[in-house]
Amino acid sequence: MSTFLENQNWRYATKKFDSTKKISREDLNTLKEAIRLSSSSYGLQLYKVFIVENPELRTKIQPAAWGQSQIVDASHLIVFANQTNVTDEDIDGYLKNVAQTRNIPETALTGYGDFMKGGIGAKSDDEKSNWTSKQTYLALANLLNAAAELKIDVTPMEGFVPEQVNEILGLNDLGLNATLIAPIGYRSTEDATQHQKKVRKSNEELFITL
């Protein structure tokens, strides 16, 4: 646990990346697996994760992210995109995966499937989209923690125009919406922010024991 906390103190929202340093394929695969293993409501994972390496695409995205240099200078750009709708087919696909993975009959999961369909189906379209967007934050958390362990920097961003990123990546046609973007790579020695003390609330301010 001490190492975990050390890593949390090490990490920060990097303001300037070293554009000459690239994440190895092995480390990238580790980050992908960390994202894949993230917790998710019902385990449904109602989102897609885009790993944007193409420099031309990233140059197009940069203006939509208020011109922030991390978009183009980082080793990779991660875009989390939630499903804007949830259908019975999504749930059926998940149940089929559960049955195959755990070697149990799909019929044994019918009740659970009906429970999910009833609860999710009762939500409005806006509620469904809002709910699935929240799931991407859980995946981002796993990315942040795994990256810190590998001493890879991440800058989580909400500072972008989703509609523009959606258009650039063709997300609307896929029933997706960009909720978070996260440049990943290695901090530049010129980034003075890395030397600043981390500012957080004290335990007394933050925690309430009942």
Automatic annotation (TrEMBL):
**Protein name stated in the entry:** NAD(P)H-dependent oxidoreductase
User: In terms of domain of life, where is this protein from?
Assistant: Bacteria
Entry cofactors: FMN
Question: Pfam families recorded for this chain?
Answer: Nitroreductase (PF00881)
* Family as reported in the entry's similarity comment: Belongs to the nitroreductase family.
Organism annotation? Flavobacterium franklandianum
Domain Nitroreductase intervals: 10-186
Q: Which InterPro entries match?
A: NfsB-like, Nitroreductase, Nitroreductase-like
Keywords carried by this UniProt record: Flavoprotein, FMN, NADP, Oxidoreductase
Q: Does the keyword Heme apply?
A: no
